[in-house]
Amino acid sequence: MLHLHHLENSRSFRILWLLEELKIDYELTRYKRTKAYLAPDSLKKVHPLGHAPILEVDGRCLLESGFIIEYLLKHYDEQQRFKPADNDELAWEYYTFWLHYSEAKAMPPLVVRLVFNKIVDRTPFLIKPAVKFMRRRVEKSYIADNILAMLALMEQHLADNLWFAGESFSAADIQMYFVAVAAKSRTPLGSGDYINVMNWLKRCQQRTAFKRAEKKGGHITL
Ligand SMILES: N[C@@H](CCC(=O)N[C@@H](CS)C(=O)NCC(=O)O)C(=O)O
Fold this sequence. Notes:
The protein has eight helices and four strands, in the order βαβαββαααααα. The longest helix has 34 residues, at 89-122.
């Protein structure tokens, strides 16, 4: 039996969505974030790292969204509906690149931005200006350009491809969805900006399994 430990507004939405796409039975436990926007201590009782997602498989804890996705596809997607066929070289390259890119390069600046925003929110009034100054420095030197470059890369790829692996929807779209929502929600955008990314987001949201996952796990608002 599979048991997903899902933290609200987190990467564990990826696993919830994939489980719904695969239409397999699983148990779901939902966790609320603390006031500091962290995972609650109860998640540490499941695994000492206390990060989401955690997928329990016969009492073993699987961590890392990319690994959990590969595990689920290996064991439950015999017809390779959510991963390109091995002999489709270009689609396989796209799929594997985006699956890794999402956590290796895309998420770090997004997390740094989130952490700084949360620190500013929680800083006492008197020293807030100093912390805001620090945030501006970090935003300028490391975060903003990285996020804009990432959005441009996604936009360029989606201008030529319907989905991240090319012609067909795959788990790379599931992995990248969280990245795109985070990048979009914390970046000032004009109405026509990154139109291919915006249209791809809508295509994801229209999927029945996505809607079921949102109903069970909550809407992602970052
Ligand atoms: N690279 C990991 C990241 C896991 C992770 O950091 N999860 C965040 C949620 S998006 C978390 O649990 N944060 C709560 C905390 O650190 O207390 C993955 O892809 O699964």
